Amino acid sequence: MSRLASGVVLVTAQEPPLDPDDPQAPGGEDVGMTATAFMSVSLDPPLVLVSLRTGSRMDDLLDEQPLWAVSVLSESQRHIAGRFSMKGRISDRLLFADIPYARGGATGAPLAGGALATLECRTEQRMPAGDHTLVVGRVLTASLPSADGGPLTYFRGRYRQLG
């Protein structure tokens, strides 16, 4: 499957607050992960699918939190893809600290600045598939914040640019 080129996206969600009834309790943390197994499923209704490693932090979060977002990364955002795909990485809070992002109005999830497209989604369906979970989301909002550059792709185990 390494011979199949794919686009690269940043999937994000916001953890719910630890204690929503306590205004002094810390708010939920932003969580992000790089994904290359992402696709459009349907135009009517607008549905997308992302494949998450079962038991990963994002899989566990999206099992509880139905709202999430996707930023389609541009070729100039390779550093973001690498940062959010590291194993044994530092906290996600620090990973978001120095990248530009806006908070989605429908989901509260971070949307990467400079992305070719951003989507906000609500989970419609979760399906186990081997060592992964397929998450189908209904697109709540879609925007095209940047028209600059081409897409970031993943091919033969490396991030690449078209052209």
Automatic annotation (TrEMBL):
Keywords: Oxidoreductase. The keyword Iron-sulfur does not apply. It holds the Pfam family Flavin_Reduct. Gene3D superfamilies: Electron Transport, Fmn-binding Protein, Chain A. Residues 1-161 form the Flavin reductase like domain. The keyword Oxidoreductase applies. This is Flavin reductase family protein. It comes from Streptomyces parvulus.
